[in-house]
Automatic annotation (TrEMBL), chain A:
InterPro entries: SoxD, SoxD_sf. Pfam families: SoxD (PF04267). This is Sarcosine oxidase subunit delta family protein. It comes from Marinobacter halodurans.
TrEMBL record, chain B:
Residues 35-79 form the Rhodanese domain. The lineage of its organism: Bacteria, Pseudomonadati, Pseudomonadota, Gammaproteobacteria, Pseudomonadales. This is Sarcosine oxidase subunit beta. It catalyses: sarcosine + (6S)-5,6,7,8-tetrahydrofolate + O2 = (6R)-5,10-methylene-5,6,7,8-tetrahydrofolate + glycine + H2O2; sarcosine + O2 + H2O = formaldehyde + glycine + H2O2. The keyword Cytoplasm applies. It comes from Marinobacter halodurans. Coiled coil: none annotated. Keywords: Cytoplasm, FAD, Flavoprotein, FMN, Nucleotide-binding, Oxidoreductase. Its EC number is 1.5.3.24. SUPFAM superfamilies: FAD/NAD(P)-binding domain. PROSITE patterns: RHODANESE_3 (PS50206).
UniProtKB/TrEMBL annotation, chain C:
Residues 620-891 form the GCVT N-terminal domain. Keywords: Aminotransferase, Oxidoreductase, Transferase. InterPro entries: 2Fe-2S-bd_N, BFD-like_2Fe2S-bd_dom_sf, FAD/NAD-bd_sf, FAD/NAD-binding_dom, GcvT/YgfZ/DmdA, GcvT/YgfZ_C, GcvT_C, GCVT_N. Pfam families: Fer2_4, GCV_T, GCV_T_C, Pyr_redox_2, SO_alpha_A3. It comes from the Bacteria. Residues 172-415 form the FAD/NAD(P)-binding domain. This is Sarcosine oxidase subunit alpha. Residues 522-606 form the SoxA A3 domain. Transmembrane segments: none annotated.
Length: 100, 417, 1006
């Protein structure tokens, strides 16, 4: 069970208080109507699903109800950083290949 | 291939079992194959078997980074059923079911496919509507599936607490008598042995590090242990690693990898003859021939490649089991484990061509892969042999996630696994 | 029966408290402080079970968690039956009742045992894969017999009478194991002020120090042990947990501890006590001091009762004052096990010989043996035990220096006990639970913990340091390090020094070679519980099962309830040898939780029965109960389903409720609908983005129905949202969807549109909601309010008003899910019952009738209103539902779902669409879920058109009505479709519009 630092509450809390909400930094297209089916499908469904560094969205569902981001290793399950919506991660996607 | 039988067993007993043949070779890889299958799990091995058997294509390599059947084939809860809601899924899984029936004889390997029936319980009025809907669809699709009321469930599983005073009383169930369980490891070994006997090269401890493409077409794989292996067609069947392989080929899949946990009790005397599944209280259970209660539930919510999940999932699962079977409260859990399941947004698999020519993917089975093993291998073999999707595989193209023709199994029937 | 093997003095048992217990129908005596195993051995009970596959007699081998054979059924009553209790870990209590879990018809002679010797040769590993295939249909029969052999103990047939609980713990340092290393670690950490939990699986803390013989600083070890435990007990920052097994090590230093609180007292926990407790621990740092398990040596017939682990023999002698035999042969690969021979001799029994597998072993231990007059045979090994139900002799042969061959001629040593030691395997289990792989260490001759990402230290034997002084020192220093890492100032505690004889190098030997090949030698057991032999492992590798995982799975090695604690390393070594690999290359299988089995009930905790899932009640719940309501579970809510009067069938009740509502007035408890309060200057804009229809111009005081879709364009929730103020709205959702909708709204607000100023909160529980519907609704309400103008032209349909109802503040919404004149009265929840009762007081003259969810469903279906989740399933969009009126395409913002419903597959004209259906026979109510076809006589698989989503008998229309999805249904009005039912009947129905009653909507506008 993960021990998650909520960047809004400023505390570590148990995973049971949170919900995982999938990949982080997925911006909704500015003009959906201009998207092709392929572009819209890519936005909705297609994911890099990396093994290793992964930036994901969580919500402190039974807590402050804030959404925030976690950088986590999907192999070791280490949480490397958590940060608020709108902030940038210190670890970037370009280092995703650290493990295979 | 050395034929297995009771008589053979007796014969070998007289020579102290010293003369059994190897079940499969450890071949030196050739440089060039007609078909390379990446992934030596149940689905990959079944694909190889049917390529050789049905299509006469035997210049085939199955490349496996670990040991045969060591991924989800080794980690599932062995349930086989075909009572899926949507026609596309139901026909695919029923195709598999028909292959299961007689597969032990076909492979000359006892897979212990045991048609002890599966119950999917309903606990709410909406559950019961969904059950009726699914049972009716199954019936018209030619799948044995009936709806039971509480009394009917109680008769099949007398030890379950079907009384009205549970938190979520059992209102009824769907019941598929032909469904059941099989010995999971044996499925991989049976297909492997039979494929090997027809000339398929099973190459274990061989990890694919790249998919080689020329002019937008796949022509081979680069491996860590054996360098480049060339192939005319390449099929990836790597549950738990599909995203990683797709990335090598330069595209993404509508797939996310999640931990799926399961657990077993200590072995106890036989007490539960059927498979009981409940989506509402969220747990399912059967008893193996060894006596273990084999128990599982849903996936963990986060992405993970760790073959383990979070403890609360185990807690909730056992709460569900004790809710359904208060008599099991004093039974003890022996062991838990996890697999990595590749889940699609519509809870249906992908059996598909890809943006890269000659490269095909069979993935995204989520929690439902084991039961489809022979069917999946059968249609994927046809797809690889012909270079275009088998009729039953057509609806499962990865491109349905562009045009919107999803087959939403969890949205509709709400039945996991 | 006398305790023939009990020593007259010594041990840690309490001879003043004799206890009576039963095993296999016989009554025995033991003492407080005994384990069930030690009590049986004291009574000279040799055969305690039969092996699972070959049905061979089995005895007790070990003294702890690694025991594979002494696995019993416990329990004096049906409800307290407990399967598979390990006798070595069960404390004796007065009145304990136990049964062996194998051996039919009895332990001493059994039919299967006879069959076993004959058939045994027919049962190599994996035999079942190779047979039972013909004929195909016979497998069911074969399997019946295979299943008869399954299992050890049995499940109770009655529900558990005990309760279990959980405790969440946060600690700075968790120390696992209270042996010398763990105790020293605890001292260091505790003195720093850090919060410390020290957990040990045994009743008494002390680990190997309890097994006697050691002196620390010249004093018996027990004295230091007592002083240490006394000191630890004094600290408020220390929690000592005996009888508590750390079973699982999960991510981010989360560990579970299974504490057995009452199993040592009796079958059943005392009233109001939990039987067992699960501690869920989040530890800043963990010190693993889990010790090591001794490895037995593998040799012929090594499963005969009387074959035991050397250290276990010492434990029984020193701790329990039980000598489990008279004449001992000890076989060892190391010096340390000589201790067992000395203990045996000190207990006054005969040591026949020490058989040391090492050539020319010489040192302090051998010197001591000579001094004691004990014969030592070096460079020899026991290749085979002889005997029937107990060891009677040991066949000893010379051994080649590398341990690969038995040499020379044999001698038979007469003995009744054969103790062996193949060295020690560190108990690395917990260190591996989070994915770390252990590392083989040739010096240790065992696996030690590997690299980990957990905040974990390993001290003492688990790290391969077996000497007592090393354990104490490392424990003290790592305890201090753990506390320091957790932010405390800590120093290693001073630890005493043990007097130890120096040890010479042990030999890496696992399976003792026989003169015959292993395939022909007497059975050499590796895993006793699963009956896996050395020959079986070799056969597996010969057949091509070369991965250690394949070996495990093919032979079933390690699948027992001891999970291979005793045998796995030996098995890996045998596999490695057979494959011509090093053990390091062969590797281990994966260690998974649990370390030892954990009761389901303990894992479930208090979350069972009524507490399985919280129940949510409305403010009027007690009234519903009192008035005979039947309830429906919707989400966690208990909702009144219908209110039968005495003697009424369900249909009669529904008919009455429906007619009463349409003819006069009915009332529904609608409190469970989700309610979300939305405020902020951009609230209106926000609503426009998340609903499919328009919200820009909804004036204050007005309500509007809206549909919500996901990005894929599929409907997932709906409800009415009311404008409370220019920047203030109240949204309602479905009962089951409320929490999901709020989270979804927050997701979009926080991640996509943080620039919008909007605030949302759930107010579902704040309000009690009651809907009065029917032609007399206005009259009734007018009697209870004097400050709301109910005039039909001022308080119109889809308006809401604030005022007073029954003397309390209320919001009244004139909205309708029934198509009737209808008011939804919202009052603060704690006024709910009061207002409800006032309505009934005044409603009697209108025959005010309570109705439940079922009547609500019928009334809304008469009007063709959908229920999200029943008429939709995540695969239908608003156009499929015929609800284009609820989609405003030209909103400036591309609302959620808009793009999704325009995808290629979503704009097909032959999609499944929601229609009304009238059976040609008006008396037949189609079952919900029935599937439509055009041709009921076509072969299967049939081409299905869609299913019935809602179907009822309408008392108002005096006929059945239904809604359902039909492929291309919107263009097929008037067509007949067929529903082939399960009972063989085919029901014909005509496709029609979805509005069955009052198509112009006049009733709600009166």
């Amino acid at each position: 069970m993960f021990y998650i630092y909520c960047p809004y509450c400023g505390e570590h809390r148990e995973e049971e208080e949170f919900h995982a909400k999938g990949q982080a930094h997925l911006a909704r297209p500015k003009d959906p109507d201009a998207c092709s089916d392929e572009e819209w499908g890519n936005f909705l469904y297609f994911r890099p699903n990396p093994r290793g560094l992964y930036h994901e969205l969580w919500v402190h569902a039974i807590g402050c109800r804030k959404f925030f981001n976690i950088a986590r290793d999907t192999q070791t399950y280490e949480i490397l950083e958590t940060y608020r919506i709108g902030e940038s991660p210190k670890l970037s996607q370009s280092t995703d290949q650290q493990q295979s | 291939m050395q034929k297995y039988s009771g008589f053979g067993l007796l014969k070998h007993a007289l020579t102290y079992h010293e003369n059994w043949q190897r079940v499969w070779r450890n071949p030196k890889p050739k440089r060039k194959y007609d078909v390379i299958i990446v992934g030596g799990g149940g689905h990959g091995l079944a694909t190889a078997y049917y390529l050789a058997k049905e299509h006469g294509i035997t210049n085939v390599a199955v490349v496996e980074k670990g040991y045969l059947g060591g991924g989800n084939t080794a980690r599932n809860t062995t349930i086989v059923r075909s009572n899926y809601l949507w026609d596309e899924a139901a026909l695919l899984y029923e195709h598999a079911m028909k292959l299961w029936e007689g597969l032990s004889q076909d492979l000359n390997y006892n897979l212990m496919f045991s048609q002890r029936g599966v119950l999917n319980l309903g606990h709410t009025l909406q559950d019961m509507r969904d059950i009726q809907r699914r049972v009716n669809a199954n019936r018209l699709n030619g799948i044995d599936s009936v709806a039971l009321d509480t009394q009917g469930v109680q008769e099949i599983v007398p030890i379950m607490d079907c009384s009205a005073n549970r938190r979520y009383p059992v209102l009824g169930a769907s019941w598929q008598p032909r469904a059941g369980v099989a010995r999971h490891d044996a499925v991989a070994w049976g297909f492997a042995r039979a494929a090997d006997a027809m000339g398929v090269d099973l190459i274990q401890q061989c990890e694919v590090t790249d998919i080689i493409t020329e002019d937008g077409a796949a022509v081979g794989v680069e491996t860590k242990q054996h360098g480049v292996l060339r192939g005319d067609r390449i099929g990836c069947v790597v549950a738990g690693n599909s995203g990683v392989l797709a990335k090598m080929a330069g595209f993404e899949l509508p797939v996310e990898s999640h931990p799926l946990q399961a657990l077993v009790s200590e072995p106890i005397r036989p007490i539960l003859d059927t498979v009981v599944m409940s989506n509402h209280v969220h747990g399912y259970i059967s008893q193996s021939d060894k006596g273990d209660l084999v128990i599982g539930a849903g996936i963990d919510g986060y992405n993970g490649y760790g073959q383990r999940g979070s403890y609360p999932t185990i807690e909730h699962t056992l709460q569900a089991i004790v809710e359904m079977f208060p008599i099991f409260s004093r039974v003890r859990m022996n062991r838990q484990w996890g697999g990595i399941v590749d889940t699609c947004p519509d809870a249906c698999p992908i059996i598909s061509d890809t943006p890269v020519d000659n490269l095909f993917f069979n993935c995204g089975w989520g929690t439902g892969g084991f039961k489809a093993t022979p069917g999946s291998g059968h249609v994927f073999a046809a797809t690889l042999a012909k270079g275009k999707a088998h009729e039953l595989a057509k609806p499962f193209s990865m491109f349905r996630f562009h045009n919107g023709a999803l087959i939403d199994e969890h949205g509709a029937a709400g039945v996991a696994h | 029966m006398t305790q023939s093997n009990r020593l007259p003095r010594g041990g840690r048992i309490d001879r003043s408290r004799p206890l009576t217990f039963k095993f296999n129908g016989q009554t025995y005596q033991g003492f407080a402080g005994d384990s069930l195993a030690s009590a049986l051995l004291a009574n000279g009970v040799d055969v305690i079970g039969r092996s699972f596959k070959y049905s061979r007699p089995r005895g007790i081998i070990a003294a702890g968690a690694e025991e594979p054979n002494a696995v019993f059924q416990l329990g004096a009553t049906e409800a307290t039956q407990t399967p598979n209790v390990r006798a070595t870990q069960q404390e004796l209590f007065d009145g304990l009742v136990s049964q062996p879990t194998s051996g039919w018809p009895n332990l001493n002679f059994d039919f299967m045992g006879l069959m076993g010797t004959i058939l045994g040769r027919m049962l190599p590993p994996g035999f079942y894969y190779k047979t039972f295939m013909f004929p195909q249909a016979a497998w069911d029969t074969y399997e019946k017999y295979i299943r008869k052999a399954a299992g050890l103990g049995r499940s109770p047939r009655e529900p558990d009478v005990d309760i279990y609980d959980h405790l969440n713990q946060h600690t700075d340092v968790l120390i696992v194991g209270a042996g010398p290393a763990g105790l020293a670690a605890a001292l260091s950490a505790a003195r720093s002020g850090a919060r410390v939990i020290l957990a040990d699986e045994q009743a008494e803390m002390g680990g190997s120090l309890l097994d006697g013989g050691y002196t620390l600083d010249g004093q018996p070890a027990a004295e230091w042990l007592k002083a240490t435990l006394d000191e630890l007990a004094r600290y408020d920052n220390v929690l000592l947990l005996p009888r508590s097994t750390v079973n699982g090590y999960h991510d981010h230093n989360f560990l579970t501890i299974h504490e057995r609180r009452t199993d040592h007292i009796g079958d059943r926990a005392p009233a109001n006590h939990s039987r067992q407790r699960l501690h869920r621990v989040r530890a800043k740092w963990v010190v693993l001091a889990t010790g090591a398990h001794e490895r037995p040596l593998v040799y012929g017939n090594n499963d005969l009762p009387g074959c035991m682990l050397a250290s276990a023999v010492s434990t029984y002698i020193n701790r329990y004052a039980v000598v489990p035999g008279n004449r001992l042969v000890l076989m060892t690969t190391n010096d340390n096990a000589y201790r067992t021979a000395f203990d045996w001799q000190d207990a006054g029994r005969e040591v026949v010989a020490i058989v040391d597998t090492r050539q020319g072993a010489a040192g302090a231990w051998q010197e001591e043996a000579r001094r004691r007059g004990i014969k030592v045979l070096t460079g020899h090994a026991v290749i085979e035990a002889r005997g029937r139900k107990r060891v009677q002799g040991a066949v000893v042969s010379g051994l080649s220096p590398d341990g690969s061959q038995a040499l020379g001629s044999d001698q038979v040593l007469v003995c009744d006990t054969l103790a062996t030691s193949g060295g020690w395997s560190p108990a690395v289990h917990l260190s591996c639970h989070t994915g770390s792989r252990p590392i083989w260490d040739d010096e240790v001759i065992g696996f030690v913990p590997g690299k980990t990402v957990q905040k974990q230290l390993a001290a003492g034997a688990v790290a391969g340091r077996f000497g007592l002084n090393e354990c104490l020192e490392e424990g003290a220093s790592l305890g201090a390090l753990a506390a320091t890492n957790a932010g405390f100032t800590a120093e290693p505690a001073a630890v005493p020094t043990a007097e130890c004889r120096p040890e010479t190098r042990p030999m890496a030997l696992f399976c003792v070679p026989h003169h015959k090949r292993n395939s022909r030698a007497p059975k050499q057991f590796v895993d006793f519980q699963t009956d896996v032999t050395a020959a079986a492992i070799e056969l597996a590798t010969r057949e091509g099962f070369e991965s250690i995982e394949h070996v495990k799975r093919y032979t079933a090695m390690g699948f027992g309830t001891d999970q291979g604690k005793l045998g796995n390393i030996n098995g890996m070594a045998i596999a490695a040898k057979s494959l011509n690999q090093t053990i390091s290359e062969t590797g281990t299988t994966i260690f998974r939780p649990n370390y030892t089995p954990v009761t389901f009930g303990a894992i479930a905790g208090r979350h069972c029965n009524d507490l399985f899932d919280p129940m949510r009640y409305t403010a009027m719940h007690e009234w519903h109960v009192k008035h005979g309501a039947k309830f429906e579970d919707v989400g966690q809510w208990k909702r009144p389903w219908y209110y039968p009067k005495p003697g009424e069938t369900m249909q009669q009740a529904l008919n009455r409720e429906c007619l009463a509502t349409r003819d006069s007035v009915g009332i529904l408890d609608a409190s469970t609908l989700g309610k979300i309060d939305i405020q902020g200057k951009d609230a209106r804009e926000f609503l426009g983005r998340v609903y499919t229809n328009a919200w820009a111009k909804l004036p204050v005081g007005k309500c509007r129905y809206g549909l919500m879709c996901r990005e894929d364009g599929m409907v997932f929730d709906d409800g009415v949202t009311s404008c409370l103020g220019e920047n203030h709205f109240l949204m309602t959702t479905t009962t089951g969807g409320a929490a999901g909708v709020l989270e979804w709204l927050e997701l979009y607000h926080q991640t996509e549109w943080p620039e919008l100023e909007v605030y949302m909160n759930t107010v579902t529980d704040h309000w009690a909601t009651m809907t009065i519907a029917g032609p007399n609704a206005r009259k009734l309400l007018s009697e209870l309010t004097d400050d709301i103008d109910l005039d039909r032209d001022t308080f119109k349909f889809m308006d809401w008003r604030q005022g007073t109802v029954a003397g309390v503040p209320a919001r009244v919404f004139r909205i309708s899910f029934t198509g009737e004149l209808s008011y939804e009265i919202n009052v603060q929840a704690h006024y709910g019952l009061h207002v409800w009762e006032k309505l009934f007081e005044h409603g009697a003259k209108y025959d005010l009738t309570p109705y439940g969810t079922e009547t609500m469903h019928i009334l809304r279906a008469e009007k063709g209103f959908i229920i999200a989740g029943q008429d939709t399933d995540g695969s239908v969009h608003p156009y499929d539902l015929g609800m284009s009126w609820a989609v405003k395409e030209d909103k400036p913002f591309s609302f959620i779902g808009k793009r999704g419903m325009k995808r290629e597959d979503c704009v097909r004209t032959d999609r499944k669409q929601l229609v009304g259906l009238k059976t040609l026979d008006p008396g037949i109510v189609l079952p919900e879920g029935a599937q439509a076809v055009d041709d009921p006589n076509q072969p299967k698989p049939m081409k299905m058109l869609g299913h019935i989503t809602s179907s009822y008998y309408s008392a108002n229309l005096e006929r059945s009505i239904a809604m359902g999805l039909i492929r291309n249904g919107h263009n097929r009005e008037g067509d007949i479709v067929y529903y082939p039912l399960e009972n063989g009947r085919v029901v014909e129905a005509e496709i029609c519009g979805t509005i069955f009653l009052d198509p112009k909507g006049e009733r709600q506008n009166v």
